[in-house]
Amino acid sequence: xxxxxxxxxxxxxxxxxxxxxxxxxxxxxxxxxxxxxxxxxxxxxxxxxxxxxxxxxxxxxxxxxxxxxxxxxxxxxxxxxxxxxxxxxxxxxxxxxxxxxxxxxxxxxxxxxxxxxxxxxxxxxxxxxxxxxxxxxxxxxxxxxxxxxxxxxxx
Length: 155
Hints:
The chain has four helices and ten strands. It has 155 residues and is an alpha+beta fold. The strands form two sheets. Strands 1, 2, 5, 6, 7, 8, 9 and 10 form an eight-stranded antiparallel beta sheet that branches. It is 19% helix and 32% strand. It has one domain (4-147).
C-alpha cells in the first residue's frame, strides 16, 4: 500500500555552481536518523542522531547513500525524481510519480540553493492519488508547504 503522489509542476532549479554544496547538504541528512522513514524492527525505539546507522534509512534509499551516490543528480534520481541537467549545467526537477516517502526532507535541504526557472519563487506542485494538491515553495531560502484547494471561477 502507500499513498501515491505525482509532481505536477516544478520550477525548482539548482545552479551548476551550487551543486556541490547541495550534494553536501543532501549527504548531511544521513546523520539525522530520527527523520528517516524506514527502519528494521530492532531500531524502532531508538532515537539517536549520531551518524548513519544501517538499521535506519530514508524511504527508497540505501542506509549509506552518500557512499553509493556521488552527485546531487544521483541522489535525487535514487529518491525517484526525474531530473535533468540544463545546457548551463544546472539541475532541474521535472517529475516524480511514486509512493510518498522522505522526499520532503531532501527538498528542504535543497531550498537554500534553489532558484526558479521563472519569475516566481522556486516551487514544486504535488497531486495525491485522492486528488489533494499542495505545493512546496522556497521563501527566504526555506521550503514552505502550502495546501491547495479547488476554486471555480464565477460564470
